[in-house]
Amino acid sequence: xxxxxxxxxxxxxxxxxxxxSELVSQVLYGDFFKILxxxxxxxxxxxxxxxxxxxxxxxxxxxxxxxxxxxxxxxSPKLSLDLVEFIEDTNKQLHPILLGTSxxxxxxxxxxxxxxxxxxxKPKEDLIKTSFLYLNSPYLWGGKTPFGIDCSGFxxxxxxxNGYKLLRDASQQATQxxxxxxxxxxxxxxxxxxDNDEGIITHVGIIMGDNYxxxxxxxxxxxxxxxxxxYNVDRKMHTHKLRVIKKVI
Length: 249
What we know:
SH3 type barrels, 2 domains, 20 strands, mainly beta, endopeptidase fold (from Nostoc punctiforme), six-stranded antiparallel beta barrel, 5 helices
């Protein structure tokens, strides 16, 4: 088995080994992974944080040893708390990194960082404060940053910055936590999941107080939440059908 770490700010993780293939997620600086298959220009990887798989360009990561992988894998994630910051390499060149970037691999990559960071579990009420850092970020299928993010990328990154692990996709996240029977039982920070006409869970958001929800739909936005689902305050209509509410923390 081979291992790698991302040494660039944002790298596309694709469904297949092609630049034209669908973006399924993003690999951020410091993310580490197992290399499942290597081809001439592409590698299929499995991310260490959430086990998500996809294809990454061979020019956009560096290989690390098994011992280095195991070391960063067992460490508590240390994450960048700045919207945009820079790390410096041994040639004094600056490389941009974004909110939620992992800093555990700095020593492996011989980089330095003197910006703000966070690590460890935070109180549940901090989830809403963190979610506001992404407010008005544009929607991007497969995105995980304030410059483009999808619904489950948003919930995963908010939880990650507070020390909790969610899986990558909404349907996967819906398998975590304990279900609640009513909205009235929920607390700010709980997750609400929504399904399509076929009953497949396709959307997720973070419940706020007073029957509001923050979620990524066109952009990260705040809408009303009722027993039917999400009521879009701009379009004055329901846009998502509520399936289940889960308490993860």
